Amino acid sequence: MKKSIKSLSFVDFKKIQGKRPLSLKKGRFFNLAYFNEVDIRFSFVVSKKKSKKAVSRNKIKRRSRMCLLKSLSLNELKNGLYIFNVSVSGVENVMYEELFEDIRNLVISL
Predict the structure, then answer these.
(1) What is the mean pLDDT of residues 95-103?
(2) Over the stretch 25-50, which tens digit does the pLDDT of each residue have?
(3) Which of 1, 16, 21, 70, CA to CA, is 20 to 30 A from 84?
(4) CA 108 to CA 55: how far, in whole Å?
């Protein structure tokens, strides 16, 4: 069976609402909540407290998504649901390499 990575949908968020994550990790820029699931799914959450402009929030999500996809092969990822929550303001100004390292370290530490 071929592995693939998918983004979370609204229905997926509703399914895990109220559940406790299997693992919680804190990185330099992100907090990672990991839930055990059948296939690989992920989401990046950026609140309005961290960035007021939608353009900035979308930029953070796009850059972070690319870091995740480029940094890890599918064999390195465990099946499950990964929710990355931005933990600091000003992430849109952080260098790509720093985001790359933080995401890679969080996922590998699971």
Answers:
(1) 87
(2) 888 888 888 888 777 788 888 888 88
(3) 1
(4) 29
